[in-house]
Amino acid sequence: MTGPFTVRDGGADDAGTGVDGTPAPDSAPFDAVPDPPPAAPDDAPALLDLDTALAEPATRILVCCGSGGVGKTTTAAALALRAAEQGRRVVVLTIDPARRLAQSLGLRELDNTPRRVDGVRPAGGRDGGALDAMMLDMKRTFDEVVLAHASRERAEQIFANPFYQSLSSSFAGTQEYMAMEKLGQLVGTGRWDLVVVDTPPSRSALDFLDAPGRLGSFLDGRFLRVLTAPAKAGGKVYLKAFNAGLSMVTGAVTKVLGASLLRDVQGFVSAMDTMFGGFRERAEATYRLLAAPGTAFVVVAAPERDALREASYFVDRLERDRMPLAGLVLNRVHPDPAPELSAERSLAAAEVLQESGAHPVTAALLRLHADRVRLSERERRLAARFTAAHPDVPVARVPAQPVDVHDLDGLRTIGAALAAASGAAPG
Ligand SMILES: Nc1ncnc2c1ncn2[C@@H]1O[C@H](COP(=O)(O)OP(=O)(O)O)[C@@H](O)[C@H]1O
Ligand SMILES: [Mg+2]
Description:
Number of strands: 8
Distance between the termini: 24 Å
Strand order of the largest sheet: 3-4-2-5-1-6-7-8
Helix content: 40-55%
Number of helices: 18
Strand content: 5-15%
Radius of gyration: 25 Å
Mean pLDDT: 77
Largest sheet: 8 strands, mixed
Bound molecules: adenosine-5'-diphosphate, magnesium ion
Structural class: alpha/beta
């Protein structure tokens, strides 16, 4: 919950790295809160206890969301592995995992089915734990939905339709919708105790939540009603309505040209006509599943301005939709290297050394130290601002690793850090 804050200009420092190159939405509460005063011990956020959530049998679905590049896929895989090694039967649905991570999860091809991950080691005395992993194939998932709802013949017609081909492989929102569709399928099998879901690196982090509504309004909204009844609307009026509808569809579709597009869309619509209800019902069922108590959302962010701004917006949206938010994972945090030596003293010492001309290496190290202290301070300031905007959101901090996380050991380290966050984590 966020109260009214006085809006002020963003600080001059803290230039975060771009997130998908997307300008973050205006008036996010993250920007609206002034920098809090230097942390008083009581201001620290509650620590996010993910181990308890993982071990809790009632937790059936865990969704990692956040903007691109912050560590969603890594966090999802690390939490899934940890839960499996603690004895649960887990499946992780990843979306575009980095190639090396995919390889170490045994995902060599995009076959849209969960595969057993080798090398999972159930922790002392606990057995029964297992991990399956899969990569989402958006087109294949869409095809499966069509097959589930249409006769073989109808399905073939739909598959052959250029509009469908474009929609199923590049319509903005299709990936979000198909991730939910797949999630619903995985939960529906009853094969797993816990389904961990990575989310698409959406330009807007909200797309995932919007999926049922967007797909619903796209597939059975006004746009399609206009298209299915072209005879009723004459000439210009029809074209105008069509263009208005078309502007809802993104570039990929508009690439297909005029009249043939129209024919394709009409063919698609009449072939799909009987499926709309089914589509929407499925999306809504999954949406209800997400809102249910067995689900936990984890928002992942890097300690950077843009990522935290998106995270803040996401937290608000989850709260507005009454989605069960577990907390924030602050990933790739740089801990204060040596709190007893401040950046100022370090720089002053470096200057003295430089003037004397002696110990150039030591001077360079002192400057490096000062940089790292400042980085750590800036990260803490940004995190404190997030917490000021969302005081009730627990936070887990995961240190930046010296190398990429691409194997099971790397995931174990991240998993342990996520769990350690529920103990006493430094600064
Ligand atoms: N705590 C960490 N320390 C170091 N590297 C990390 C950490 N978390 C993630 N990475 C690396 O950052 C990159 C992006 O992570 P990824 O999980 O793919 O992000 P996302 O799914 O949010 O786009 C990957 O190369 C991953 O190995
Ligand atoms: Mg990812």
